[in-house]
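Reopening this ticket.

The earlier resolution said the output was attached, but the attachment link was broken on my side. Pasting everything inline this time so it's all in one place.
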Amino acid sequence: MPDADPLMPLALFTANCHLRVRRLAEEEIIKHITTTDGAIRRSQALGLLRSWYLSMPHAKGAAAPAGPAAGVVLDLARSAADEGEARLWADDGAFLAWAEGGGGASIIAAELKVLHART
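Inline output:
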């Protein structure tokens, strides 16, 4: 039996910590969204947050389909874009860096102002 990687538990612990911190950050932002506009449900707020995150320039490059867009190839390109977006959305470290960084924080603040103006 091969020796287990002694760093594997540390890697799993680190990934788990990122996931927990990300979920806490998400819930805090969702709380701000639903407080700002009481008509927005949690699932809608999560969808808004996801769209704000994926609309950033870093997201566009990761999710951009490659190749010609015609017929079946268009469906494949859309599928590749969806996979790219799913991968980016699942990247806890990238999400945290965005949400806690100036770019994401300013986008969130601006979007909350727009929501507040609508109510």
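Reporter confirms the inline version is readable. The mean pLDDT is 79. Residues 8-36 form the longest helix (29 residues).
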